[in-house]
Request: fold
Amino acid sequence: MKEVFETVFLLAAGQGVLLTLVLLIRKENHTANRILAIATLCLSIDLVIAVYYSKGWYMLYPHFMGISYTFPLLYGPLFYLYAAFVSKKMDRFRYVDWLHFAPVAVVLIICFPVYLYSAADKIIFVNNIMHHIMPIQFAVFAAIIPVQGLVYTFFTIRIEREYDKKIRDQYSTIDLINLHWLKHITIAMIIIWSIVAILFVLQLLTSGHTGIYVLLQLSISILIYSIGYKAMQQPEIFLNPSAASSLSASSGKYERSGLSDEFAEEIKNKLQTVMTAEKPYLENDLTLQKLADRIKISSHNLSEVINSKMNLTYYDFINSHRVEEFKSRLHDPENEKYNLLSIAFDSGFKSKGTFNSIFKKFTGLTPSEYKMNMHLSPKTEKF
Reply:
């Protein structure tokens, strides 16, 4: 069984190296992709090093010892910075951002004498570590690693949530620009850091944790495959500078907007008139800016009216109209020959997943349940 896991780890490492190359040659979001490439490559090297120790290769090649020792301190900052760049929270790497990697530099400086050990001394040192005999500073590092990782993961999730809120205030269809897959990755990181924390506690209390180490490396393998799958499944998240600036501009509060109640009511009435008469929501790529241009007001004022006066995000506002359009079309006997998804697309929805989730959010029913309740057809379509 040990050999099986080692093979899985090496295959995952190979997958990670290939993914690293793919990310490096991508032109869009170049900085974000380079950061993710570095993280993926480090994870891959970590897996190879795990096999290096598991197979006892360190006895033959002791000078490779410690290559990946500081890598766990890299993952938190790297995934955080990747989220910041891909969400356009950051648009360039500043000198101050190098401070995220200060702990890595400190650990390298403290551990530098160990890297200068002779081959024999390195083997002795590794054997002592495996038997939980280590200098106090290494125990401190082991305690800091999961804490630092969980803190950065929390901030990464916060970036994803802030970005999700911003795009829901600007876009009516977000399937290709959301960062939900990144949330899944951060959940995986939480699991990994939790395993690392458990390992640290067990090392203090008992000996012999091979199963937990295998679980940790298996989790890293799954993470690499997940990054590869998600990165290939979802198109590159790439917003041009104007789109990024519009996200930033609309993200603030409205306290000092100067929008009077009378003007807000006028905008609201004009908006409702346009939505009823022109049905702009039938355009599946309708953005806040496009709708504002149609009504001839600023996108900021329109966003304020929808958010503050209607208590809705732009995303929910547009899609609620699409739900009503779908229901109206479904009641039309002329549309009985069409399936639910066709009617949904004609109503402005762009994907089956968004249609299902939005429809249930506003009606409490799945589309097929709603149709069944209408008794329009004895045949129920499954969604």
About this structure: The chain has two domains: 2-243, 252-374. The mean pLDDT is 84. The CA atoms of residues 368 and 380 lie 6 Å apart.
